[in-house]
UniProtKB/TrEMBL annotation:
<feature type="transmembrane region" description="Helical">
    <location>
        <begin position="221"/>
        <end position="242"/>
    </location>
</feature>
<keyword id="KW-1133">Transmembrane helix</keyword>
<feature type="transmembrane region" description="Helical">
    <location>
        <begin position="69"/>
        <end position="92"/>
    </location>
</feature>
<feature type="transmembrane region" description="Helical">
    <location>
        <begin position="19"/>
        <end position="38"/>
    </location>
</feature>
<feature type="transmembrane region" description="Helical">
    <location>
        <begin position="104"/>
        <end position="124"/>
    </location>
</feature>
<feature type="transmembrane region" description="Helical">
    <location>
        <begin position="144"/>
        <end position="163"/>
    </location>
</feature>
<feature type="transmembrane region" description="Helical">
    <location>
        <begin position="170"/>
        <end position="192"/>
    </location>
</feature>
<protein>
    <submittedName>
        <fullName>ABC transporter permease</fullName>
    </submittedName>
</protein>
<keyword id="KW-0812">Transmembrane</keyword>
<keyword id="KW-0472">Membrane</keyword>
Length: 247
C-alpha cells in the first residue's frame, strides 16, 4: 500500500492540472481574505450601512478559504480524472487498493496546503482589518480553524469520490462548483428549501467554520457528521463503480 500511495503522489506531481489548482488554493484564500478584511475595515470606519449586521472580525477570517475551496474541489476532480484507468490498474491491479491509495495520496498532497491556506487567510483578514482585527486565539477561533481544515479536506475527497464514479471532470465540476457558489444559497430563499439546503454537503460542512454556532441551525458536530456521510457515500460509490467498470 505504501508503494501504491507513493506512486500516486508521483503522478500528482507530474500532472500540471492538479498542481496548478492546488497552488491556487492559498493564493485565492489569502487574496480574498485580505480583500475581505480591507473592505470590512473601510465599512467599520465609515459606519457603512452595507456592512452585514452579523459581521464579526472572528468569523470574517473564514470567508477567504470558502473561495479557495473552489480550487481545491478542482484539484480533487483533476487528480482522479487526469489519471488514465488502464495504465493505473496495470501498476496496481487490486482495485480496492488502487482506490484507497488514490484517496490517501490526494489527502496527503492537499493537507499541508489546506492548513497553510486556512491560517494564512485568517491572518490576512485580521491584519487588513487593522484596529478591528482579532487574535487567532480568541474564544472559538482555534476550534473553527480546525473545523475549516476538516471541511476543506472532506470537500476535496468528496470531489475525488464523485469523479471516480463518473471518470469525467465535466459532471462533478458542473455539479459541485455551482452548488458551492450559488446552489445552496438559492434553495434557502424559499422556506421549504431551507431545511433541504442545510443537509447539502457544502452548507452542512460550513457549520464546522462557525466561531459562535447558531442555536437554530445545525451545530458544528452535526453539520460535520452530515458532510462525512456525503463523503462516505461518494467514496463508496466511486469504489463500487470502479470495481464493476471494464477497462
Amino acid at each position: 500500500m505504501i508503494d501504491a500511495v507513493r506512486g500516486e503522489l508521483v503522478k500528482l506531481r507530474s500532472v500540471p492540472g492538479p498542481l496548478v489548482s492546488l497552488a491556487l488554493v492559498p493564493v485565492i484564500s489569502v487574496g480574498v481574505g485580505a480583500l475581505n478584511g480591507w473592505s470590512g475595515r473601510q465599512a467599520l470606519t465609515s459606519h457603512s450601512s452595507l456592512l452585514r449586521p452579523d459581521f464579526t472580525a472572528q468569523q470574517s477570517g473564514f470567508d477567504g478559504v470558502q473561495y479557495g475551496m473552489l480550487a481545491l474541489i478542482v484539484f480533487g476532480v483533476l487528480a482522479v480524472s487526469g489519471d488514465p484507468l488502464g495504465p493505473a490498474l496495470l501498476a496496481v491491479p487490486r482495485r480496492g487498493a488502487f482506490m484507497a491509495a488514490k484517496m490517501i495520496a490526494i489527502t496527503v498532497a492537499a493537507l499541508p496546503v489546506v492548513v497553510v491556506s486556512v491560517v494564512a487567510s485568517d491572518l490576512a483578514t485580521q491584519m487588513t482589518l487593522g484596529p478591528y482585527g482579532k487574535s487567532l486565539g480568541e474564544s472559538g477561533v482555534p476550534r473553527a480553524l480546525g473545523g475549516a481544515v476538516l471541511y476543506l479536506m472532506l470537500m476535496c475527497v468528496l470531489a475525488a469520490g464523485f469523479t471516480m464514479m463518473t471518470r469525467t471532470p465535466l459532471v462533478p465540476l458542473a455539479v459541485l462548483l455551482p452548488l458551492v457558489t450559488v446552489g445552496s444559497q438559492l434553495l434557502t430563499v424559499a422556506a421549504a428549501g431551507r431545511r433541504a439546503a442545510e443537509l447539502l454537503p457544502d452548507r452542512a460542512g460550513a457549520r464546522l467554520l462557525t466561531v459562535r454556532p447558531e442555536h437554530d441551525a445545525l451545530g458544528p458536530m452535526l453539520g460535520g457528521a452530515v458532510l462525512v456521510a456525503w463523503v462516505v457515500a461518494a467514496v463508496a460509490g466511486g469504489a463500487l463503480v470502479l470495481r464493476r467498470r471494464d477497462v
